[in-house]
Design goal:
This protein is α/β, with parallel strands linked by helices and about 1100 residues long. The chain has seven domains: about 1-125 and about 220-290, Rossmann fold (3-Layer(aba) Sandwich); about 130-215, Penicillin-binding protein 1b fold; about 305-385, Rossmann fold (3-Layer(aba) Sandwich), CATH 3.40.50; about 405-490, Thrombin, subunit H, CATH 2.40.10; about 510-700, Rossmann fold (3-Layer(aba) Sandwich), CATH 3.40.50.300; about 720-870, P-loop containing nucleotide triphosphate hydrolases (Rossmann fold, 3-Layer(aba) Sandwich); about 930-1065, Aspartate Aminotransferase, domain 1, CATH 3.90.1150. Helices cover about 40% and strands about 20% of the residues. The protein is built from 37 helices and 43 strands. A hairpin with a 5-residue loop joins strand 22 and strand 23.
Length: about 1100
């Protein structure tokens, strides 16, 4: 960024600032350092002086913006540090203090007033609180483990959260509390042999390191903590652009801390009076001179492209050096594309004014005719708000973990055996069979009959999911009743699949609305969108546009967790439809959500000739009549409403797109009306109930699905606690949120007592303002209430579950749910999704009242909501909810009984087979293969000590189908658990033999000593013709057994596999890109 830096460094005010700082006088008063000119000035001081600077600003958001701009403008990240406030910033503060205490201070610290009064460890606590790991260094593994335990790290089987570690033989996984990255350390004797960074989602290594420094500092500061001022020596200078505003902000924060003095002292924070004296003396020191750098805020002319060019023309008058920043390359490329579409005149204006384009997130621009420099972001150019993002080390999208891990077995779980039915899993047992040691899954059936399933056949067994909390009835081993039950469900899913396919076929035969490619306005609209799409969102948008531009009517499901950006995708689809002169209906489940969507759609499209209206009980009868007339005449382009939209008096002139949010929440009558509506229009359905992969595979041929499995960049998981009601806890949590200028939801779902709850909270926290909202309020009053909260006129909204669906308020980041035991699991997950949608750490407190008894099912729900708090947890939530109360939420109540009869996984198998049969595709049900070979082959406990991980590994090997798949699984085992011992290698070979037998439809393999390998198959003649052995090497026994002659004993499974591959056809066993899932057979 030298083009911006040079004019500033050469300016008279900067040279005077240098001279003033070289003397002993107080720092001068700075004027005209608006926006990112403040960061640019700090960048210039870094390059031109040797000083150290504390950039102190009133608020946290401003501090994050200044820090981001400073790095963007060319400051060395190693020389600057952000000093974050609050409990969630404790590690970041401690990290800065550690650098100060150990003689490695940054040259610039950016901090808010609140941050400098929050606690950090004292210097003596910092020293020695870091663990240095270096490849080749002698550092016993047990010494490292002891240090982790002493530092309060939790030992877990799987490391995917900060502050945890695991030990597996010579491997240690550890995740520092600063959350930067988890590390995998490998030892050879007492020497560190390897050091890698691994992905906590996949558990696979992603980067090899030579050394690493791990912070062992605790997140909570013990008694005797200090503030930042105690760590800064005389070499530091406060660089403030408005000292008076800082002093006022400091007084505000200190008064709040003094009001909570008891809490402050309990947490050991520095005395308030001492902090006031240290900081205010520096802030209010008399200035020797005032310097003005002439910076001005950039005021945009409007939100259209023409307005943007006009703004750019005005800012660049006089041809200053100008840099225009874009969040990403896609935004920059869209701007250039639209610029070219607007003709040579617009392009010439930008080119002549010496405007350069850069990719980077500039938080606040500036314009200084005095310096002859300007910098602005595309958000400012188009007057669109910037969504603030938390500063992260690598802003990679978080991908939801696969559901299979949740379905792993634990002792006592109910399971479904593919051939035998429902049983109870007793455990994994190691037993001798024919002189060889192997692992078996022991299943208990009706009458306490036990079945021992070899670990290599684990794919025949799945966890039973689908009941309503009650224990399912166990099947009788060997009985025909299980086959009859499967047939009954098979008939039911065939009927369902037939209906779905018929609807799909009817829609496919009808000519759809074929939209034109994107218009210039569409590109302009998307260029001004204040988000950077995740890759999944981008794919979904492209797929929808492909649907809209084809002649086939669209029927697409957008499936993603709460807060994953489904509405953003729908808004782009709606705009494209309107550009094609068609109307759009957006159907939502609640009045409050309809109101918010209406306002957000109107705000987003206000600069285009798009009329957006709403239909809900918030509108008067006269307003509703006006909207209905507009829909009938075509005057209304987009209507957003509740079930009011599907009533008989609603007529559209030319409906082109129907968007349905959470379809399962509408009644049977409404769904029937929707069914009639959707036969000849494009349909986009959105759901926050994620569809697991197995069900996705089963219905893939019936509906188009676009999963959103990646969290928006910078999202943080919501800190979740299930807690008894405690006044002190509630007060402190509310004050903490107010302290960072946030808002709070308090959900109380009883209208009769909600006003009393609000009054009690007002007495408890008089510093806050409260308002109540519930569905029985008069429409206008509820509308005013919600508007007051959205516009931040009140601090706390005490409400019923009217806030549950889709409500998006960035400043609300703490939620309390009173009597959490009274809610369903999906409801709790949706409520938690109201917070944590932007860069702040969010908190969800699920409150239990001590006087109320909690049922066993409610306890299961609460354990699940606390356990599954990470990003993308909706998959686990959906499956656990199905386990607790049935599967109606995913497939509708009419299918719940069928799922309960055979279990979710078996239901998906049967549905998948039904769809394939109806589409005339080949269907093969995987058969139980019996392999009688006496080789010791298993995975020892010493190699994978955790039973859950052990079963997961067995399952992955059981699902592998090709040599490439097996190599992939073994490589992952080697990475996660170390080199596999010989007995594990033997098991892999046995699993490969089983995969070959399944592919060839061989039911049984046994070794006949001195004779060869006997193969039992239904289609023996077909197998005989395909055998590649010479005639003398093949015999048929008793007309149904094929014997491959081999006189000598096999030395091990490796020799047996080589023999089989040499004599049997193995071409086309499933392509390396395809992996067998439950519900899929061999091709």
């Amino acid at each position: 960024m030298e083009t911006l830096l040079h004019p500033l460094v050469r300016s008279r005010p900067f040279r005077e600032l240098e001279r003033a700082l070289a003397g002993e006088a107080p720092p001068p008063v700075l004027g005209g350092v608006t926006g990112s000119l403040y960061a640019l000035l700090a960048r210039a001081l870094l390059s031109e002086t040797r000083g150290r600077w504390l950039l102190l600003v009133p608020g946290e958001t401003e501090a994050e913006g200044v820090f981001g701009d400073l790095v963007l403008l060319g400051a060395d990240p190693a020389e600057v540090a952000l000093f974050p406030p609050g409990v969630d910033g404790a590690i970041g503060r401690a990290r800065v203090v550690a650098d100060l205490a150990e003689g490695r201070p940054p040259r610039v610290i950016v901090a808010s007033v609140r941050a400098v009064v929050d606690p950090v460890p004292r210097p003596d606590a910092v020293r020695g609180a870091q663990l240095l790991l270096k490849v080749g260094a002698e550092l016993p593994r047990d010494d490292v483990v002891a240090r982790l335990v002493d530092a309060g790290f939790q030992r877990e089987a799987v490391v995917d959260q900060p502050g945890t570690f695991s030990v597996r033989g010579d491997l240690v996984d550890l995740f520092a509390r600063d959350g930067r990255a988890p590390f995998r350390v490998e030892w050879l004797d007492e020497e560190i042999e390897g050091l890698r960074v691994f992905d906590p989602a996949t558990q696979l290594s992603v980067k090899v390191l030579d050394d690493a420094k791990i912070s062992l500092l605790a997140t909570e500061i013990e008694a005797g903590g200090a503030g930042l001022a105690q760590h800064l020596d005389e070499g530091w200078t406060v660089l403030a652009r408005d000292a008076a505003a800082l002093a006022d902000a400091l007084e505000t924060h200190l008064r709040r801390y003094e009001a909570a003095e008891r809490v402050v002292r309990e947490e050991g924070w520095q005395e308030i009076s001492e902090l006031r004296e240290v900081l205010t003396s520096r802030l209010k020191a008399p200035a020797s001179l005032a310097l003005n750098f002439g910076g001005q805020i950039v005021a945009a002319s409007g939100t259209t492209f023409e307005n943007a060019v006009e703004t750019l023309e005005r800012v660049t008058r006089g041809k200053p050096t100008t840099v225009l920043f874009f969040d990403g390359e896609s935004e920059r490329d869209r701007f250039v594309s639209v610029l070219e579409d607007h003709g040579d005149d617009a392009a010439r204006k930008v080119r002549d004014r010496k405007v350069s384009f850069r990719v980077g997130r500039l938080h606040e621009g500036f314009h200084s005719p005095f310096l002859g420099v300007s910098a602005l972001s595309h958000h400012e150019l188009f007057a669109t708000p910037m969504k603030r993002r938390r500063r992260v080390i690598e802003e990679e999208a978080v991908v939801s973990k696969a559901i299979e891990n949740f379905l792993d077995l634990a002792e006592g779980d109910y399971v479904v055996h593919l051939a035998q039915g429902i049983a109870q899993f007793i455990g994994l047992r190691r037993e001798m069979k024919g002189g060889a040691e192997q692992d078996f899954l022991v299943l208990r059936f009706k009458g306490d009959t036990l079945l021992h399933v070899p670990a290599s056949k684990i794919d025949l067994v799945q966890k039973y999911v689908g009941g309503k909390g009650d224990a399912p009835q166990l099947s009788k081993l060997g009985s025909v009743s299980w086959a009859k039950r499967k047939q009954s469900v098979k008939d039911a899913v065939t009927d369902m699949a037939t209906d779905l396919l018929e609807l799909h076929a009817v829609r496919a035969r009808k000519p759809g609305i074929q939209h034109a490619p994107d218009t210039a306005w569409q590109q302009e609209f998307e260029a001004a969108f204040p988000h950077q799409l995740t890759p999944d969102q981008g794919r979904a948008v492209d797929a929808i546009k492909g649907d809209l531009e084809s002649s086939r009517p669209m029927d697409r499901l957008i499936c993603g967790d709460v807060g994953y950006g489904k509405t953003e995708v729908a808004m782009r689809a709606a705009f494209k439809c309107v550009m094609g002169n068609r109307q759009v209906a957006v159907l939502v489940p609640t009045t409050v959500l309809a109101q918010q969507h209406w306002e957000s759609f109107r705000e987003r499209m206000k600069d285009y000739p798009v009329v957006v209206e709403s239909l809900s009980r918030f509108r008067t009868k006269a307003e509703q009549k006006h909207v209905l007339e507009g829909l009938a005449t075509g005057a209304v382009d987009i209507v957003i409403g509740t079930h009011r939209l599907v009533q008989g008096d609603v007529e559209f002139k030319d409906l082109g797109l129907l968007v349905i949010d959470e379809e399962q929440r509408f009644g049977v009558g409404h769904k029937e009306r929707l069914r009639r509506l959707r036969t000849n229009v494009d349909v986009l359905v959105m759901t926050a109930t994620p569809i697991p992969r197995t069900l996705h595979q089963a219905i893939l041929g019936i509906r188009d699905i676009s999963p959103l499995g990646q969290a928006p960049r910078g999202r943080r998981e919501v800190a979740t606690e299930v807690v008894p009601y405690d006044k002190g806890m509630v007060r402190n949590a509310i004050l903490r949120e107010l302290d960072r200028e946030g808002q709070i939801f308090f959900v109380h779902n009883r209208v009769q007592t909600i006003d009393k709850v609000a009054r009690d909270l007002q007495k408890l926290v008089p510093e806050a303002t409260f308002v109540t909202g519930h569905g029985q309020m008069p429409e206008r009053q509820l509308e005013r209430t919600m508007l007051a909260f959205i516009e931040r006129k009140v601090d706390v909204l005490v409400a019923t579950t009217i806030i549950e669906s889709g409500l998006d308020i960035p400043s609300a980041n703490t939620i309390f749910v009173d009597r959490a035991d009274m809610y369903g699991l999906a409801d709790l997950h949706q409520l938690r999704g109201r917070v944590g949608r932007y860069h702040h750490q969010a908190y969800a407190y699920f409150i239990l009242r001590p006087e109320a008894s909690v049922s066993e099912i409610a306890e299961k729900r609460l354990r699940a909501i606390e356990e599954f708090s990470r990003l993308g947890a909706g998959f686990q939530i959906a499956m656990r909810d199905m386990e607790i109360r049935g599967a109606g939420n995913i497939l509708g109540p009419e299918q719940s009984g069928h799922i309960a009869a055979v279990g979710y996984e078996m239901y998906c198998r049967l549905l998948d087979m039904a769809v394939k049969r109806l589409k005339n595709e080949r269907v093969v049900m995987p058969e139980e293969v019996e392999i009688n070979i006496d080789f010791t082959a298993f995975i020892p406990d010493a190699y994978i000590p955790d039973r859950r991980l052990l079963i997961e590994t067995y399952r992955r090997l059981g699902r592998a189908t090709t040599e490439a798949h097996f190599e992939q699984v073994v490589a992952e085992m080697r990475d996660r658990f170390g080199p596999p011992p010989p007995v594990v290698e033997e098991f892999v070979l046995v699993a490969r033999i089983r995969a070959l037998m399944e592919f060839l439809r061989i039911q049984r393999l046994e070794i006949m000593r001195g004779e060869g390998v006997a193969l039992h198959a239904r289609r023996l003649s077909k197998l005989r013709r395909a055998v590649q052995a010479p005639p003398e090497g093949v015999r048929v026994l008793r007309g149904r057994i094929l014997l491959l002659v081999h006189r000598k004993p096999f030395a091990g499974p490796g020799e047996l596999l080589t023999f089989l591959e040499r004599n049997l056809p193995t071409d086309g066993i499933v392509s390396p890109q395809q992996e067998r899932h439950p519900g899929e057979g061999s091709p």
